[in-house]
Amino acid sequence: MNHATIFNLIKAERARQALQWSGTHSWGHGDCSSSGTPEIVKVAVLAEECGEVARAVLDHKPDQLKIELVQVAAVAVAWLELLGDE
To answer: Mind listing the domains of the chain with CATH numbers?
Structure first.
């Protein structure tokens, strides 16, 4: 996979996460780019995604691994978006 494809996948996942978590939910408001979501929740989200990467490796599922790695990257990008505004 080339860089352009990878970054497009991350961008699409980032948009999906932003849409899914755009409102108020039981852990705060917004996705990991939002100041309305506590940092401990962001850590939990990132850790959960990393756990799914581990599961894909242990289960020998390379296609799922790619999906999970994109999700990890998108969560990290979301958090960085917030930090860039501080």
So the answer is: 3-85 (1.10.287)
Q: Which residue has the tokens 């501080």?
A: 86
pTM, full prediction: 0.91
50: closest CA among 80, 70, 30, 28? 70
Query: Measured on CA atoms in the order 81, 35, 40, 21, is the torsion positive or negative?
Result: negative
Give the pLDDT confidence of 40-80 residue by residue, as tens digits. Answer: 999 999 999 999 999 999 999 999 999 999 999 999 999 99
Question: By the 8 A CB rule, do 44 and 57 touch?
Answer: no
The two tokens of residue 83 are 């930090």
